[in-house]
Every structure is written in structure tokens, then in C-alpha cells.
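Help needed: design a sequence for this.
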């Protein structure tokens, strides 16, 4: 079954790769994605594909050039999808 919304996808980061990799590839539109603060892929934990993005500690982040696509709702409804695994969860925030 085809994804009815595929034509609306503006950024697709699978974040698959080898342990320690700092290459983050946009699989849909080839946008340049740069790590700031030394984020890297890790293979110790993964939901899909064998790797995940490690943003633990500090101010690690991914950056991309400014684009009209990053203005939520500018051209109608929008959606952001992600899997998140916190390093720890306090008993009051479960």
C-alpha cells in the first residue's frame, strides 16, 4: 500500500548507519543535515534499522539551512513523527 502523503514529506531521516557515524542523510530530498555538538549514531539501542541518533548530554542537535518548509502550518496542516527513548524517566513523570 502506497503512502498517500508521500508527496508532502519534506525531510526523512532514517538515521541508520554504523556506530559512531556522524553522517545524517535526508532520504527524501537530499537536504544537507549537519551535526552540532557532536551527535552521532549509536547501535546499542534501536527501534528500526540497527542504529539510532544519540543526543544524550550536552547541547547536541541536528541543523539544516532555513527553509519555508520549517514553518509549521504555513501551507496548511503539518505532522512531525519520531520515536524517542529517554535515558531515564522519573517516577513522577511516567
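Sure. Designed sequence:
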Amino acid at each position: 500500500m502506497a503512502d498517500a502523503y508521500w508527496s508532502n514529506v519534506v525531510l526523512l531521516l532514517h538515521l541508520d548507519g554504523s556506530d559512531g557515524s556522524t553522517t545524517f542523510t535526508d532520504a527524501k530530498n537530499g537536504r544537507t543535515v549537519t551535526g552540532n555538538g557532536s551527535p552521532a549514531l549509536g547501535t546499542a539501542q534501536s527501534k528500526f534499522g540497527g542504529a539510532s541518533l544519540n543526543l544524550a548530554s550536552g547541547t547536541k542537535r541536528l541543523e539544516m539551512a532555513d527553509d519555508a518548509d520549517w514553518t509549521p502550518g504555513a501551507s496548511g496542516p503539518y505532522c512531525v513523527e519520531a520515536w524517542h527513548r529517554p535515558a531515564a524517566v522519573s517516577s513522577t513523570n511516567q
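The mean pLDDT is 85.
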